[in-house]
Design brief:
By secondary structure, this protein is mainly α. Helices cover 77% and strands 0% of the residues. α5 packs antiparallel against α15, α8 packs across α15 and α8 packs antiparallel against α16.
């Protein structure tokens, strides 16, 4: 039985929290250590990636006005390229949403291990803790979008506040004369370094489209979604860039290379042991809490695809709170991936899984950027010369940003992502067949 989402509308604050909360997770807390080999080149990488992410945010903002429907990138791709491409984008986005979320569990356990290593080393505890987190946020999401986004506001406040404090106070500990001296392993052009950094940098910005996915549940979406998307990206970028400058300038390069939790190390240097403890607690809450937003999105995109007849009807069903029942399906699959990749011996598989998830998300971004350009050209009579120039710049940067990121991905990752999309073809044929049969039955009944 389906239920309408009466009263389940979210405003600018909650929508912005969803955007920022889905981006600020394992990317910001773990990225400085992963990018340490590139030295100060990483700061330039953050700035370049921010420009690309902001261009995409502006493109998504316009698309949300031109195509005011739930589903985000999937909806935009389907509107311009048709059912098959739309289905594949929904498929890739859905898998990426629950599959890539496993990294959040790994990051949460890594942060906890700093404070209680013996407890996290216990396999039964770690597995039970990971499954309990998924179950908790699944339960919250099944209470409705208003409840889940209310929790998201609290989580975002908890994880952003300490990052801002470190950025503000840490700037006084940075020696700017040495900040750009060491270039790590780059020893060459920025472009050669960016290729190695791109996956990590992009992973940190995945989720910038979050406000567009549940647009049917947003108050005054044509105004709220653009505001939330742009505000969320700017807030996140400010945290990332300021944090990267402070961490690179405060922690010696050799120590950063060996660091498991750079923000904890920075908090120790700036505020002492109590600061480190506060960073561990808030970082753990922030990483774990990021699951909340991604569980919401995977349910919303599957529900939107089901409403178009491109996903099984089950994903269209909602409970009495208006929450899609398909949320549970994605959460169960998330648990399965976590269990399969938990062992230390397969941690490389986890990394590969994350990289594949990034590429699976980049393809919907690329199609959305092309759809933006296509629709902008079709609407060119509506725009002034200045608007045409502005939209052209946004379109070019968005397409180049996503294309270069895809082109620069490892061959192994591209192969696995291609296989993932190839597997979707039989499912598409099955749903298309069912859709056609249902249409025939409907015509016969009339």
């Amino acid at each position: 039985m389906e239920h309408k989402m009466d009263g389940q509308k979210i405003g600018v604050v909650k929508a912005t929290s969803l955007v920022a909360g889905n981006m600020i997770g394992s990317g910001v807390l773990l990225a400085p250590a992963i990018l340490a080999p590139y030295g100060s080149m990483a700061i330039i990488g953050w700035i370049v990636t921010t420009i690309g992410a902001l261009a995409l945010a502006l493109a998504f903002s316009k698309l949300s006005i031109w195509i005011p429907r739930s589903g985000g990138p999937y909806t935009y791709a389907k509107h311009v390229f048709g059912d098959f491409v739309g289905f594949q984008m929904a498929w890739g986005y859905w898998i990426s949403a629950w599959c890539g979320s496993v990294s959040l569990l790994s990051g949460t356990l890594q942060y906890m291990s700093i404070f209680c290593p013996s407890l996290v080393a216990n396999q039964m505890f770690s597995i039970g803790f990971g499954i309990a987190l998924i179950a908790l946020f699944t339960f919250i999401n099944m209470r409705g979008i208003k409840e889940s986004t209310f929790i998201e506001v609290i989580i975002v406040a908890i994880k952003i506040l300490p990052l801002i404090i470190i950025a503000v106070f840490g700037i006084f500990y940075v020696d700017f004369s040495d900040l750009f001296d060491a270039t790590g392993v780059s020893n060459g052009s920025f472009l050669s370094s960016f290729g190695g950094m791109s996956v990590t940098l992009l992973w940190a910005f995945i989720g910038l489209e979050s406000g567009t996915v549940p647009s049917d549940s947003v108050e005054n979406p044509t105004k709220t979604i653009p505001m939330a998307t742009i505000a969320g990206v700017l807030l996140t970028a400010a945290v990332y860039i300021c944090g990267a400058i402070v961490i690179t300038g405060v922690i010696p390069h050799a120590a950063l290379l060996a660091s498991k939790a750079p923000y904890v190390d920075a908090a120790t240097k700036i505020f002492g042991e109590y600061g480190a403890l506060a960073m561990i607690v808030t970082g753990t809450i922030g990483l774990a809490g990021s699951l909340n937003g991604w569980i919401l999105l995977q349910g919303q995109v599957a529900s939107s695809a089901a409403s178009e007849g491109l996903f099984p009807k089950y994903f269209l069903k909602t409970n009495k709170y208006g929450a899609p029942r398909g949320v549970v399906v994605g959460s169960i699959l998330m648990m399965a991936v976590f269990l399969l990749t938990y062992q230390e011996s397969v941690m490389e598989h986890v990394k590969l899984l994350i990289e594949m998830s990034v590429l699976a998300m980049l393809l919907p971004y690329f199609y959305s950027a092309v759809a933006f350009c296509y629709l902008a050209v079709g609407r060119k009579k509506e725009f002034s010369p200045v608007e045409k120039c502005f939209l052209s710049i946004i379109g070019v940067i968005s397409i180049l940003y996503t294309f270069i990121a895809i082109f620069g991905s490892e061959e192994k990752m591209v192969f696995l992502a291609f296989a993932m999309f190839l597997i979707s073809v039989p499912f598409y044929c099955s749903t298309k067949k069912n859709k056609r049969e249902n249409a025939i039955k409907l015509l016969r009944n009339h």
